[in-house]
Structures are given as C-alpha cells and as structure tokens.
Queue: 2 jobs
Job 1
Amino acid sequence: MPMASKGLEGIVAAETKISFIDGEKGVLEYIGIPIGELASHSTFEETVFLLWNGRLPNKAELAAFTAEIRKRYELPAGMEQRLLALPRDAKPMHMIRTMVSALSMHDHTPDANDIPSLRSKALNILARVPTLLAYFHRYRSGMPLVRPDVNLSVAENFLYMLNGERAKPTMAKALDVCLVLHADHGFNNSTFTARVLMSTQSDMYSAITAAIGSLKGPLHGGANEGVMVMLNEIPSLEATEKYVLDKLAKKDKIMGFGHRIYKSYDPRATHLQVLAKDLAAETGNSSLFEKSKKIEDVMATAVAAKGIYPNVDFYSATTYHCIGLPLDLFTPVFVIARVGGWAAHVIEQMSDNRLFRPDVDYKGPHGVKYTPMSAR
Ligand code: SDX
C-alpha cells in the first residue's frame, strides 16, 4: 500500500491533450498554443472552439460555432420564471450552481452522453450562464431584464445585459481576454471534480454543476473576490506593507498568491497585470493597481523564496473592478470562462473513460465488538 498523498499532491491522475502547464517555467498552453499568443490574438469563442476541437477554426467554422452559441443566449421557456422566483439576496454562485442544474430539466435528453450530445449540452450551458448571471443581477437590483443581443460576442453581450448599454470597446475586449485566460488549466480542482463525476457516465449538467460548487471555494475560484476584499481593507498604499506582513506573521494566506503547480510567476498573471494597470489608469483606479503592485513587492521579498507568486486571481480582481463588475460577480465570471474548459474535459473523459475510484489507506481500528445500547 503506497503512502497516501494529501490533496493528491504530485499524483498524476490521468492523461490529457487539452492544456499543458510547466509550473517551474511558468508555461501554460491550450492545445500547444502559448497562453500569451491566445490572450493577444484570439477571442473567447475561438478559444472554446480550440479547446473542444483540438485545433483553431477556419473563418467559416468560427462563424458557425459563434452562431451556435448566440442562438442559445436566451433561456428556455420556464427558466426565467424559475429565476425570478429565487430570493433576491441569493448569492450569485449558489444561484448559478442551482440554475445550471435546472437547465437539465429543459433538455429532452439530459443523460445523452454521445459526443455530439455532450457538445450540444455544453453549448447550452456556455451560452446561458452569462444570461442567467445578468438576468439575476438585474432582478436582484430591481431593474428590468435586458434581453440578449445575438449580434454581440459572449463578453460584449454579458456586459450589455448586465448594464443595459453597450460596453466601451476597451472594457469588452478586456473581459474577452480575461475569459480566454481563465478558460482552462489542467487538473485544477473544479476540472478534476467534473471529470471524476463524469467517469460514472452521469451527465454534462451534473458535471458542470459539481464543478461550479468546487470553483466557489476561496482556495480556488473564490480567491478573486478575496483579493478585492483585501484591497478594500488596506487603508492606503503606505499601510500596505504592514498589512501584508501582519497577515503573514499570523500564517494567514494572502489571496491571489500561491499555486499547487506554479512555483514561478503564473503566466496568466503577467497578462492580467498589464490589463489591470491599463484599465486602472483608464478608470481612475490607479491607486488600486499601485496597492496591488506594493503587495506583490512585499510578497516577493517575504515569500517568493517559497515559490509563492501572484496567481490568476490577483490582478483579475482589479481588472473586474475596473470593468465595473459587482464584487460578488467576480467568481461567477470565472464560471463563464471555465465552462469552456470543463466541457472540453468532460468530452475528453467520455472519449476514453475509466471510472475514478482510488484506494484509501485505512488507519482506523479492527475487530471492534458491537456494544448493545444497554451497555453504553
Ligand atoms: C486558482 O489548481 C489550479 O490550476 C487553480 C487555478 C485554475 O486556473 O483553475 O489556477 C485557479 O484556484 C488559483 C489559486 C487561487 N487561490 C488563492 O489565491 C488562495 C490563496 N492561495 C493558497 O491558499 C494556496 O497557495 C493554494 C491553495 C493556491 C495552493 O496551496 P498548496 O499547494 O496546498 O500550498 P500550501 O497551502 O501547502 O502552502 C505551502 C506553503 C505554506 O507555508 P509553510 O506552512 O510550508 O511554511 O506556502 C504558504 C503556506 O503557508 N502559502 C502561502 C500562500 N500560499 C501558500 N502563504 C501566504 N499566502 C499564500 N497565498
């Protein structure tokens, strides 16, 4: 019996051809394409096609794929009523986990697991998560719903439905880049969750619902909200160093830093830092970026030797704030993006499936006698 690896640290759980990470060198590739290339030249829709098909689309394929997404933007009949019956103070991550699960009841073949069916279900979820989030935000804010516009991209349409007006091109482009950067990332906890569930031959809706539950955690996708809370807590640039060192002294984790795989700079953070800096300057939030940079400098001195660097969540917080997203929609935006990667992994799992069922090293007692109640 080999020793148990806590948190499966260092365990290779499967093979994949979707994304590659070199934690020492800070490399991330989607289907072999460096993340920097995709962040600079691709779009979210094109990146999802890449993740689902293992290659970039030609012009006609991208147009057809984009049309397939856009025709699914609107919710199925009945979903809107269900959404508008939720408590207005429901938390968005609980809402989206619940409503993605509810989408399965509007699919006449929710358990069909052939690849074409899985792709169709993935399109349903990918197209409707932004609509569900925007509708819910308008509903809880007492504002009229804004119907999706099929002439807009996923990023543009989400901001349009959320704010009731077309986003500035710089804002829509920034969100699109964020969606590309957040789309996939190897066997992170939520992706692993989706694949473990799918290995029982369950269904796409259940797999994505479970993955949302995982991403919600503050050690995973929930960290971007934690970063913003931290930035708001630090009263000034001058108070930043003491704030960080005090937390480290208490062995508190600094949100947005550290990673199980990256022991160098997260390549996504490199792009998000530039995005955050530019958007902060454009929106009069430079103090937020300067505070972030100061936190990074303090952490570099204090803990970089332990391989603790900014991860994807650190600068996405400032970026999302500058785009104008409400704080409790930061992690839900991560969901919008990661549905692309989760679906790719669910399809890969079903293409060469083996039930996940690890062994466990039992450390409890043996030969214990049953004690009757009278003797207890
Ligand atoms: C994401 O897996 C993925 O790919 C995830 C993700 C994706 O795209 O799907 O990249 C997205 O989830 C990014 C991570 C977001 N989470 C956070 O920012 C939360 C703060 N980070 C930490 O909780 C932590 O770094 C983890 C959870 C991300 C990784 O934790 P590990 O690998 O279990 O490392 P650990 O907790 O065992 O820490 C090792 C050492 C410890 O010090 P010692 O006890 O050895 O002295 O590093 C320290 C930790 O105290 N440490 C930190 C720290 N992270 C680790 N110290 C201060 N602040 C931190 N953030």
Job 2
Amino acid sequence: MSKPIAGFSKLSKSKKIDWIVNTYFSNANDAKSILKQYWNSNEKLQQLHDEFIENTITNYYLPLGVAPNFLINNKLYTIPMAIEESSVVAAASKAAKFWLDRGGFKTKVISSTKIGQVHFMYSGAFDKLQQFFTKIKPQFFEDTQAITKNMTKRGGGILDIELRDKTNDIPNYYQLHVSFETLNAMGANFINSCLEQFAKTLKEQALNFELFSEEEKNIEVVMSILSNYVPDCLVRAEVSCKVEELAQNHSISGEAFAQKFVQAVNIAEVEPYRAVTHNKGIMNGIDAVVLATGNDFRAVEAGVHAYAAKNGRYSSLSHAKIENGMFSFWIEIPLALGTVGGLTGLHPLVKLALELLHKPSAKELMEIVAVAGLAQNFAAVSSLITTGIQQGHMKMHLMNILNQFEATDNEKKALSEHFKENTVTHSAVTEAINKLRIKS
Ligand code: MEV
C-alpha cells in the first residue's frame, strides 16, 4: 500500500515523476523511460503542454487523422479528427465520398443561444422578489459592463435575464436564468464571469431594498454557473438523394437499402438500448472533430445526450425518411463550440486544424461537426444493415492486432494481403502470424 503524499503539486516535474515511478512501478526505470519517450524535444512546446494542466508528467498522444472530400453547402472540406478507434476516420471518409457524388451535405445553424444560471435561496413573498428583480434588472447589465463591453461591440453579450420561481421543486429556491450570445467563443469564461457578478449584485442590492424584511434581505447564493444543456444552440445537417442513387456495389437495391436504413433509424428513435449505441456512433464523428479543434468534448457530450432525452425517453439524434422517391437523412444537434479563446489560440495542432477547416466561425464549426456526426452515423448504419459492422471494423483493427504481435513491416504486408480475402478475427490473425513465422 502506498502512503498519501502532501504537497505533491508543489514538487518539480522530475520529483513528481520520481515519486510516481518509485511508488507504483516494479521497474521504475522502465516506467520513467516510457514517460520521457512522450516528451517533446522542443522545450517551449513541452512547457506549453506542461502548463495546460496541473501535475503534468508527460503527453498523452492520440492520432490526428483527416477525412477528405466533405462537400458542405457546396464548399469542400478536409476534416481533422483526433481519435483512437481504428475505423472512424475511414468510415467518415467513405461517407464523405459517397455523398460528394450526391450533392453533399446541407447545413444550417438554427440558433446559437447559451444559458447560465444563478441559483439562490430567498425566504419571503414572491411578489416582493419580483418587484426587487424588476427594479435591479438594469443594474445587472450595468455592473457587468466591464466584462461585456467587447462582446457587445461585436454583436453578442447578455440577451436576457429572467427570474424563475423554482419553489415547487425545492422550498425557497429561485434562479436568475440568463441567456447569452457568445459569437465565436464557446463562452464558458465569459458566461461564468457575468454570472458571478450577477450573484454579487443580487446580494448587495437585496441589502438595500426597502420592501425586504431583515430575513428577506439575506439572499443566499448557492452557485453561479453556465449550463451545458444548450437546446437553443442548435444546428441541422442533412443529406438527400433519389432512392435509386443509394444502390451500393450492386449488392442491394437503392429501394431496399433506403427502407432498411429508415427502419434502423426508426428503431433507434423508439428503443433506448439501440438509441444509445446509434448516438455513440454519431459521437465518434463529433468528438473526434471537437477534440481536434480544441473544444470541450465533455460539455458537448453532456449537452447532446440531455437533448437526446428531451422528450422524456432517450432517442435517436438522427432521423430518416423516404418521400416521393427521395431519401433524406438528417440530424439536429446542440453544439456549444468556439473558434476563439480556450485552447484554440494556444495549441499548435488546434490552430492547424482550424486553418485546415478554412478558419471557420463558431457557427461554421457547428455545421462541420454536425456533418461529421451525420456522416459517421450514415457509415455505421449502412454497414449494420448490409455487411454487418465487423467486416470494416476488424479490417481496420488488423493493424492493432499485428502491432500487439510486434509484426515486422514484411509480416504486416503479407498479412494485410492475406486478410483482403479472409475474415479478420483475433484468433485468425494469431494463427496466420504463427504460420508465417514458422515458415520463415
Ligand atoms: C462503434 O464505435 C459505433 C457503432 O456501434 C455505432 C452504431 O452501432 O450505430 C458501430
């Protein structure tokens, strides 16, 4: 059993590593050399990464891949994706190519409002609180001017502040429910700074409100924080084509494919067990681009899944229909993203990813990310209703299995050739590599 350590964060990086490797590893030198292998030799770059978080001991790599040929609103994109799952980039590229020949993706940002809340306790009559709120509402705007000045100049800022009575849920519980437009910033810092100022104003002004009793003056702020539920920061992406244009490799008619596809999506709409996996496939595309562009994938995940459950039952984020011989497939998804602030101006690969995407505005990035999700979903459902998912998945996973066996370049070449004709399973690869090694 290791002992707790005091003052760990104050130790130097090398002392932290020494403590870690000596406390937890049977071979401290091996552990240390793995950690060091992932350091960047460019000291400035390494320091930048060290300072992103506390207690950095090394860098954690993910591959950054690209999926070309995405036609979005008649503009071509190559989409950067940071992800570990072998088949995701290949599937995105395949879907992009497929829709490139069928008019591409059409997208639209429906709304871009974000929400923050000050949660507080007040014990008194609601009508008095309402009078108080109406009186001090302009003060909220005034007291946050230093924070909102630049954002307002650019056309964003605080849209509205509402007082909400939540006493049906919890006695004495009220909210300031605030809507924001944060333009190209994800806006978390902006929103939270405004909210914390509102909380101060609320408490201070209550002390001077003549209609409040001594008890009522004592408003207790519980917390002030943005919401990652962003149902009004919404984007739509869609593809459509004639049903007969869906025929793939002559293995299935366009009509049969379209019908089976719509059935599969309908199942995800009504069956939560399927919906979660269906949406996970969407998030494969979404998270990969969100991560590559330095955005907060946990915020996006939380908001997206809450939205998927907005009608009281967890359901599919995408929808499909056949109407008048046309197949349409679309997604409507909440995405709070930024292309300025946060990591976007700091992480060299994030800057590169944004330049690759033609330096998008936040709204354009919402559109690109929604497309990545829809494309990924199209690829997954297409495989599921035709060949099954394992064929493509295992083909891409082959390299991982070969790497587990430390296969040489020649072995990889020979076995990739062999598995063009044979089904990839872990045991089939084990057998094939053993055979090859015995032979040579
Ligand atoms: C695997 O990462 C994602 C899929 O399971 C998605 C789906 O089932 O639609 C293939």
